[in-house]
Amino acid sequence: MARAHQPDQSRFRAILPEDIEWKPFPAFPPQARLAVMVGHPSEPGPYVIRVKVPGGTKLMPHQHPEDRIYTVMSGIFYIGLGETFDGDKVQAYPPGSVVVLPGNTPHFHWAKSGEYVTQVTAIGPLGLDYIDHRDDPREQHVHNQTVFDPISHRTIPRMAN
Predict the structure, then answer these.
(1) For strand 98-101 and strand 45-53, is the pairing parallel, antiparallel, or unpaired?
(2) Cα–Cα–Cα angle for 68, 35, 120, nearest 5°?
(3) How far apart are CA 12 and CA 119, in angstroms?
(4) pTM
(5) Could you give the percent of the chain with pLDDT greater than 90?
(6) What is the pLDDT of residues 20-76, one digit of tens each?
(7) Element (H, E) at 74
(8) Which of 39, 129, 132, 152 is positioned for an S-S bond with 47, CB 3.0–4.6 A?
(9) CB 58 within 8 A of CB 110
(10) Order of strands across the sheet that contains 107-110
């Protein structure tokens, strides 16, 4: 008996690096980018996204309800565990590393040595909750500006720096 295909997996296809559509993501600092590779992260089911973070950028302590598997594509991925950002507690993972992050684990990221790109594989819906709501870029509205949210496929208010 044939199984039903998962979202975006019913036909053979390849996504080449030059075809990746990097977009702002409201829950990230404004300079970070997200690309949906496979699936629909806002819905139940498997998804694959990539996250590109320029050098020096910090993602303050947050957690995701879903279990996640990070694969480091390029750069050095620095991640620390805990509810308080501590640059001395980040661990460095080079390209090719795989990091398993259980859901609801408070953690933080820092592009300490330059830009990094990670690929995240998980079962949606994607969630991201900052430990301190004041760190959440979605809470820092700028009037009369909008941005396309690649997860919900809606236009929403753009967040300030």
Answers:
(1) unpaired
(2) 15
(3) 20
(4) 0.84
(5) 79
(6) 999 999 999 999 999 999 999 999 999 999 999 999 999 999 999 999 999 999 999
(7) strand 68-74
(8) 39
(9) yes
(10) 91-93, 77-81, 107-110, 58-63, 129-130
Instruction: Please give the order of strands across the beta sheet that includes 68-74.
Output: 33-39, 45-53, 116-124, 68-74, 98-101
Residue type, 42: S
Q: Going by C-beta distance under 8 Å and a sequence separation of 6 or more, which residues neighbour residue 12?
A: none
Nearest alpha-carbon partner for 104 in 76, 73, 124, 128: 128
Confidence of residue 3 (pLDDT cuts 50, 70, 90): confident
> Which residues, in sequence order, are CB contacts of 61 under 8 Å at separation 6+?
82, 83, 84, 85, 106, 107, 108, 130, 131, 132, 135
Cβ atoms of 21 and 147 within 8 Å: the answer is no
Task: Write the single-letter amino acid at 37.
Answer: M
Which residues neighbour 48 within 8 Å (Cβ) at sequence distance 6 or greater?
Answer: 36, 37, 38, 39, 119, 120, 121
Residue reference for tokens 């050095």: 76
Q: Quick one: pLDDT at residue 7?
A: 80
